[in-house]
């Protein structure tokens, strides 16, 4: 009996000796078999797949969770079920991960990206976030800021917000009243009011008959588009195909940028030139000489 006890004791001692790792190495085996490797911060028990060259953590300390590749113990995020090695959440189960991966937030219909506070920052095509970020609402052409109920709060430049807050009227100065509410009654300078109550920039004359609802003549310095749906300021040549409705060449004195022409800034025709400066200097000298003679 004693020899058996001796052998067991000896085996335990040998195992203990071989299981000791020299700092900073630690035993990264799952069963304490003396596999020495670099420690994983926060790991309390190593995985069965752990090796000396590639330690894997099976259990992390309280408040920590193992990354999906088991190479790190990262700070736990509420509702997160899977983590990247950098600590970002990659799976939130029934919830969704914020864009920066630092939080799991409630899903919002049609929302594509989220902030860590749960607000929607971008919606699917045709939708846009409300001003408070709590819903995705149908996009209104010309609207820059939305209310949570889907109404428009403010329109972009050159658009007028109608009283019902459901539309932005391009180029409109005054909304109609009574039965004409929601339509334009008067356009801003530079726009022409069409029979359908729309305002067309740069247009001088609306067509009739088969050209009703189309522009047939533009103001000076404007080019009528081939489709007769608008006028291009300072444009010499309209594009074709995918560039239809955009300018590809401007008139002299204009600069082309992203399909539109802008007028070049004119130089000051009467700057403080050398002649002016010379005249001023001569005048000062004459005055000084006259004063001296007196």
Description of the molecule:
The protein has 294 residues and is mainly beta. It contains 2 helices and 30 strands. It has helices spanning 2-19, 274-293, and strands spanning 26-27, 36-37, 43-46, 57-60, 64-66, 73-75, 82-83, 89-91, 96-97, 104-105, 111-114, 120-123, 127-129, 136-138, 143-146, 152-155, 159-161, 168-170, 172-175, 184-187, 191-193, 199-201, 203-206, 215-218, 222-224, 231-233, 235-238, 247-250, 254-257, 260-263. 26% of the residues are buried. The protein is elongated, with a radius of gyration of 38 Å.
Helix-strand layout with pairing:
Blueprint: H1 2-19, E1 26-27, E2 36-37, E3 43-46, E4 57-60, E5 64-66, E6 73-75, E7 82-83, E8 89-91, E9 96-97, E10 104-105, E11 111-114, E12 120-123, E13 127-129, E14 136-138, E15 143-146, E16 152-155, E17 159-161, E18 168-170, E19 172-175, E20 184-187, E21 191-193, E22 199-201, E23 203-206, E24 215-218, E25 222-224, E26 231-233, E27 235-238, E28 247-250, E29 254-257, E30 260-263, H2 274-293
Antiparallel strand pairs: 1-2, 3-4, 5-6, 7-8, 9-10, 11-12, 13-14, 15-16, 17-18, 19-20, 21-22, 23-24, 25-26, 27-28, 29-30
